[in-house]
């Protein structure tokens, strides 16, 4: 089976380095400027490190590498400091609307100097991103109280623009390709590590990179693994196994997320039929509830079907997605759920519905689901991969 990418999405992949339109970048800057004005801030430091901190890429197009700090002042050109000198040429090419400099021996030392040149006043600086203790200490020493805009950033990213959604569709396609590769290669004698390699081969050649590929495998007749695990093992797949996986491949920070379970060489036994039936029932119940205006508490109530069928969960059943692991994060009804049950879903929001249904002793389990788009009337699938409890190999 070949998973085809839609023609208009292929055109995004064609340039040497794909770019969002000027109007899309202006939209983002305007959103941030409005939030800063609301909090009476003149400047914002946007930070990321080790490929973490999606706001840097969102505002500059640079996907970070080791470390990046952006000084954002509405009405002025951004200035970004990055850690590795040899990364400057590419950073300047991708972040072409930003002045890019080497961070030298202290990235935040340069940030403070830049803010001083911009005549930053006390209590007028905000931050977005995982700023560490030393960086925060330097900022507060120079400019007093610093305002975190991390929660506001999540809200800015909540509703995706049409351009962003196309990039997420590419990430979803790449994730589907990875899951298809797992299904094609999960056969007796292949190790989990070899499966991870096949997963990455399916999308790296298209320009994708790995966010996660969690893999679990266990014999259905004597199970001991109930959820995909974070580090692939040297265990060899065997006939009679169940193999399940959670895969997110990304296209310049825009990733999909797809979850599936497969049997190897045999049909599922009764326990696993029941587990997957509960997972499908939960997925259907949750996606039936989801729409613009639906409340998080309604989704939690829809997950009750898992407990009613005699099972429970380990993983979250639903979480927000697209630029981070966003609220609401909803588990099953028998675990703590520290979210606002009155929070409403909105059109243009991405979420992942991913029931991981397990036995109460947590020895057997399955997982299914994928990223979906909230619309006014329901949900739209972002993934094209076939659903269901299928046979691998």
- In total, the number of domains comes to 2
CATH fold descriptor of the largest domain: Creatine Amidinohydrolase
Global structural class: alpha+beta
Characterize the quaternary organization of these chains: single chain
Low-confidence stretches are none
Overall outline: globular
SS field, number of helical segments: 12
Strand content: 15-25%
Mean pLDDT: 96
Most strands sheet = 10 strands, mixed
Strand runs, count: 19
The CATH class of the largest domain, by name, is: Alpha Beta
Helix content: 25-40%
Rg over alpha carbons: 22 Å
CATH superfamily of the largest domain: Creatinase/methionine aminopeptidase superfamily
Distance from first to last alpha carbon: 12 Å
CATH architecture level-2 label of the largest domain:
Alpha-Beta Complex
Can you walk through the features of this model?
This protein has 393 residues and is α+β, with helices and mostly antiparallel strands. The chain folds into two domains: 22-158, Creatinase/prolidase N-terminal domain (Creatine Amidinohydrolase, Chain A, domain 1, 3-Layer(aba) Sandwich); 162-392, Creatinase/methionine aminopeptidase superfamily (Creatine Amidinohydrolase), CATH 3.90.230. It is built from twelve helices and 19 strands. Helix 5 packs parallel to helix 6 (133-143), helix 8 packs antiparallel against helix 9 and helix 10 runs antiparallel to helix 11 (296-302). The longest helix has 24 residues, at 162-185. The two termini are 12 Å apart. The relative contact order is 0.11. The mean pLDDT is 96.
């Amino acid at each position: 089976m070949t998973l085809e990418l839609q023609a208009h999405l292929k055109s995004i992949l064609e340039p040497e380095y794909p770019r969002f339109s000027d109007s899309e970048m202006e939209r983002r800057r305007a959103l941030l400027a409005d939030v800063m004005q609301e909090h009476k801030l003149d400047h914002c430091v946007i930070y990321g490190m080790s490929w973490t901190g999606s706001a840097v890429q969102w505002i500059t197009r640079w996907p970070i590498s080791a470390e990046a700090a952006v000084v954002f002042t509405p009405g002025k050109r951004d200035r970004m400091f990055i850690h590795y000198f040899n990364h400057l040429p590419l950073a300047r090419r991708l972040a072409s609307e930003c002045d890019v400099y080497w961070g030298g021996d202290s990235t935040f030392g340069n940030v403070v100097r830049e803010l001083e040149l911009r005549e930053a006043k006390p209590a007028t600086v905000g931050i977005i991103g995982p700023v560490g203790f030393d960086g925060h200490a330097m900022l507060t020493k120079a400019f007093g109280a610093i305002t975190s805009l991390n929660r506001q950033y999540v809200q800015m990213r909540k509703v995706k623009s049409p351009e962003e959604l196309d990039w997420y569709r590419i990430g979803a396609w790449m994730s589907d390709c990875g899951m298809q590769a797992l299904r094609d290669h999960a056969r007796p004698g292949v190790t989990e590590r070899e499966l991870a390699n096949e997963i990455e081969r399916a999308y790296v050649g298209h320009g994708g990179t790995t966010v996660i590929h969690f893999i679990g495998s266990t014999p259905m007749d004597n199970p001991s693994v109930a959820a995909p695990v974070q580090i692939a093992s040297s265990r060899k797949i065997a006939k009679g196994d169940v193999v399940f996986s959670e895969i997110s491949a990304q296209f310049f920070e825009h990733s999909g997320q797809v979850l599936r379970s497969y049997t190897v060489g045999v049909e599922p036994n009764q326990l696993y039929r029941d587990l997957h039936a509960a997972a499908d029932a939960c997925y259907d119940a949750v996606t039936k509830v989801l729409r613009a205006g639906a409340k998080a508490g309604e989704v939690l109530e829809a997950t009750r079907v898992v407990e009613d069928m005699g099972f429970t969960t380990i993983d979250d059943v639903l979480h927000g997605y697209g630029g981070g692991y966003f609220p609401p994060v909803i588990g099953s009804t028998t675990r703590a759920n520290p979210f606002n049950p009155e929070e409403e879903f909105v059109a243009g929001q991405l979420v992942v519905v991913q029931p991981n249904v397990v036995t109460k002793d947590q020895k057997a389990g399955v997982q299914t689901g994928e990223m979906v788009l909230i619309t006014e009337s329901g949900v739209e699938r972002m993934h094209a991969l076939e659903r269901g409890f299928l046979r691998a190999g």
